[in-house]
Write a structure and sequence with these properties.
22% strand; Rossmann fold; six-stranded mixed beta sheet; 10 helices; 365 residues
Length: 365
């Protein structure tokens, strides 16, 4: 039987295993573009047995085009093999080949600023994704080598749209987006829909309202709160996220009448919404600013987030940011001296918040 534990270690002969070589690989082209290394990187190409290495100079995709053949634009919609890019006077369709994506290290995302090259065939292709200031990510497909996919880039604030009924408030979904906003130091706006369907707000909603930056109840029917929300969005790039059926698409149609996005009804069987938004898209707000509409995904992954960091920054646990548990590596499970569990027992923190945290913690493992 193969000894998996020693696969990443040196062989008795002193030669590295193939897996050890793979573990040392880095995305040199991306490091060069980001300024981590100064010189143009060189790629080592090995035979299957890692013998007779050949050096190959990595090529910048921009070298395929002359200066007058390139132009900068804004990605407004992304498809499987193409994206829609807004230029100064028009919106064009640009392709990105597998080899180009490998050199870029990332698929273009809505909100990205990109450099396009105009091929001799008259077709635009993406040759550079410019550095992002912020990004909202989710897990990639299970059969994909990419750990994450970017939903939106270069955003100023996150808007979480939730309904208080039909479908009911989902604590875990809202917490994931709130955490993503905090990790990127982005303001978080909570928009409450369908408040006319309940006499009083559910306790979970009331708890969540205490830990976001801004709360705006709205009604797409009466227009309540629309003006206040519009003023908050004006001049900014805001990404809208929400479960299917909460009224997110209907709300965006009120804010951007020219969008004419398709809406769907809530299923009677389980009270959940039907997916009507299938891909992220960037829309122009009248008077300035952008709204990025994202699909009603069921979960947002918090990738590469250490469990201890999650335990220390989870919204609502430590309002003043000061970690007060007895042990610095406390995960709020069964550790003695856990300030969070004590606060739950005393009614200072709701059990729903602790349960939401535990679901996210367990999903990471």
């Amino acid at each position: 039987m193969k000894d998996w534990q020693n696969e990443n270690q040196e062989n008795p002969s002193g030669k590295s295993t193939r897996r050890a070589h793979r573990a040392r690989r880095v995305d040199a082209m991306q490091m060069w573009l980001n300024g981590t290394i100064d010189d143009r990187p060189i790629k080592e190409r090995w035979s299957r047995e890692f013998k007779n290495p050949r050096l190959k100079r990595l090529k910048d995709p921009l070298e395929n085009f002359k200066e007058h053949e390139t132009i900068e634009g804004l990605v407004v919609e992304v498809h499987r093999r193409t994206c829609e890019v807004r230029l100064e006077k028009e919106t064009v369709t640009a392709t990105y080949r597998a080899t180009t994506v490998g050199e870029l290290g990332e698929f273009p995302a809505v909100g990205d600023k990109v450099v396009l090259g105009l091929a001799s065939t008259g077709i635009y292709c993406v040759v550079r994704v410019k550095k992002r200031k912020t990004a909202l990510v989710r897990p990639g497909p299970k059969d994909s080598h990419r750990r994450e996919l970017t939903l939106a880039a270069n955003i100023d604030q996150v808007v979480i749209v939730v309904s208080v009924a039909e479908p009911s408030f989902n604590y875990g979904f809202a917490d994931r987006f709130l955490l993503a906003a905090h990790l990127n130091e982005l303001p978080c706006v909570l928009v409450l829909t369908k408040t006319d369907l309940v006499k009083e707000l559910p306790q979970e909603v009331s708890d969540f309202m205490q830990i976001v930056d801004t709360v705006i109840p709205v009604s797409s029917v009466s227009g309540e709160g629309i003006d206040k929300l519009f003023a908050l969005l004006s001049g900014k790039t805001s990404v809208f996220s929400g479960q299917s059926g909460v009224g997110k698409t209907t709300l965006i149609n009120r804010l951007v009448p020219s969008a004419a996005l398709k809406t769907g009804e809530v299923r009677i069987k389980d009270g959940k919404g039907r997916h009507t938004t299938t891909s992220s898209s960037l829309l122009d707000l009248p008077g300035g600013g952008f709204v990025i509409d994202t699909p009603g995904i069921r979960a947002l992954g918090l990738l590469n987030l250490d469990s201890e960091i999650l335990a220390g920054i989870f919204p609502g646990f430590f309002p003043d940011g000061h970690f007060t548990c007895k042990y610095s590596n406390c995960l709020h499970l069964e550790e003695p001296g856990c300030a969070v569990r004590d606060a739950v027992k005393n009614g200072q923190i709701s059990k729903a918040r602790l349960d939401s945290y535990l679901r996210i913690l367990n999903a990471k493992d």
